[in-house]
Amino acid sequence: MGGSSTAKKAGPRDAASKVAQQRLSVLELAREFGNVAEACRQRGMDRTSFYEWKRRFQTQGFDRLKDLPPIHRSHPQTTPPETVEKIKALALAHPAYGCNRHEAMLALEGMPASHRCYAGWTRAGRRARSAARQRGSAQAPAPASI
C-alpha cells in the first residue's frame, strides 16, 4: 500500500497550477490510452485545445500549461483623447471638410494621426450632429405665418 502518487502532491497550489495540472492529466491520459480522441472525450476537451496544450508542454514545460495573463485593454497605438476631442471639434466646426483635409489641418497644428482615425471620429461627429439636429427640430417652434 505504498504511496506512489506522493511525488506529485506538493503543498497548497494556486488556481493556475490546478488548471495546469488538469491539462497535464489529459496529456497523460492520452499517452495511457494511446488514443487522443478518447482522452479528450472523457475529460471534455476538444482535440484542437489538446494539441495546443501538448505543444506548449513539450516546448516550454509545465508552467506553459497555465493560463496566459490577460491582454491589456488599451492598445499602444490608441489615439490620445485630446486628439480625439480635437478631431470631433473640427468635424463639428467644418462639416463639409473630408478626412484628408481634417488630417492636414491637424498636422499643421502638430497633431498627426492616420486618416483612418479621422474617418472614424468624423463619422462619430456626423452622428452627433445628426442627433442634435433631430432633437433641435423636435423642440423648435414652428415659424409664424404672416
Automatic annotation (TrEMBL):
Where does the Insertion element IS150 protein InsJ-like helix-turn-helix domain lie? 22-69
Q: List the SUPFAM superfamilies.
A: Homeodomain-like
* Top-level taxon in the UniProt lineage: Bacteria
What InterPro entries does its record include?
Answer: Homeodomain-like_sf, InsJ-like_HTH
Q: Where is this region: Disordered?
A: 1-20
What protein name applies here? Answer: Insertion element IS150 protein InsJ-like helix-turn-helix domain-containing protein
